[in-house]
Amino acid sequence: MSEACDLTAVEARRLIGQKRLAPSELLASCIARIESVDHAVNAMVARDFDRARLAARAADAAVAHGDPLGLLHGLPLGVKDLEETEGLRTTFGSPIFRDHVPAADQRSIAAVRAAGAIVLGKTNTPEFGAGANTRNAVYGATGNPFDPAKSAAGSSGGSAVALATGMVPIATGSDTGGSLRNPAAFSGIVGFRPTPGLVPNEKRGLGWSGLPVLGPMARTVPDVCLLLAAQIGDDARDPLATTIHGRTVRRAEDFATPAGIDLARLRVALTPDFGFAPTECHIAEVFAEKTGLFRHVFATAEDATPDCRDSDEAFEILRALNFLAAHLEKVRDRPDDVGPNVRANVEEGLRYSAADAARAMTMQTALYRRWQTFFDRFDVILTPAITVSPRSWRELYPAEIDGKPTRTYFHWLAMAYAVTLVGHPAVSLPVGVDRHGMPFGLQIVGPRGGDARVLAVAAALERMLAGDARTARPVPDLAKLRAAGPISAMDGFFGFD
User: Fold this and answer.
1) What is the pLDDT of residues 426-458, one digit of tens each?
2) In a domain? residue 206
3) pTM of whole model > 0.70?
4) Count of the separate structural domains present in the chain
5) What is the largest CA-CA distance in the chain?
């Protein structure tokens, strides 16, 4: 691939700064890619091409005039349709907000615009981010770039697919049960879940809940770092964005490029399931094969897992509390306009008592403390990023894995929510394909507050694995996507289930 839209974000930004690539040229390439392949996958659902062209021309002029350029100057950006964008339709994947056009950007979007990013459009998401299958009753389903009949996971599925197909070099996402990591794994790109509060979110309904976070997605680890550097900041509206009065504790320069790290000094734990996640045998075997190619490079590599007992129950209750806070009134007042995943979580939440909530918080605290003891022995943990290989998007969720029923519609996300519960940073790194020819994601989990370490390890592994076809980032067949029929013609395209 040699088109401008296929450049990494870091390389594109370097060329823009050197006056060797015009922002308008890069934007035109991204728009052409969207127009040539999006019919097959339905990733970029609300487009802002006219305003993006105006912004790109202004970015061209800034370069020509020698003006100071931001970290993301001239880089087209895909924005997950859960984040509010001024003047651009933001539906949250819900018919209730089908015609919602915000009057202002939320903080996360204002920050990246201020760094020079150009919002190109909104990327598809399941209704209110629920269910990890990017499909809704407003825009329909998003298909996997390696097989549009299969799921792109979610809830940042549109962002992942837009990145994998070269529609944009950077994109935003969010993560509660793995929504930055799961779609990254399914589409062969990089998704990073930061420590809660590192990327402030003034829209979080339960301000002190660390389950939902905002974060970056891109095709490479350095690109993720570049976007993350623009997203971080101090914001008093987010109680988790704790700070020291009068002192900047979140600095762009700490994250703009991945730090160097010596893999040979690392103590690494490897687990296919955290001892409880319903991992498909195929995925566990592929994980063993992939890590078997490089586990020797670490100082020690031990098959071990932190004690994750009670993770399912704790997450089920705490997740339901978040849904009650955000969606109870919608389910009560407009039940016909709310999908089954959101209804299921609200109905579950209504069954819990204050004693249940207290028990879940107590279990979460105990989990967190056991993880801290585990990290006394290890520097990072390696796991599969997700429990299954991509399946059809017509399947609302995997009701069974290897013939065994799952507990809930989100139980298949247990590999991700084990990490969510304890608030540790984690990244999904593409490592070749599985036995079905679909992307395989490796989850790298760091210690408490170890965002920079996780990204450093991921970047070092990415460089090391890029030269081997068995472990290099897979790339979808764009010619095949261009020639494919529209995903909108597939049965079941529109709807919740």
Assistant:
1) 999 999 999 999 999 999 999 999 999 999 999
2) yes
3) yes
4) 1
5) 63
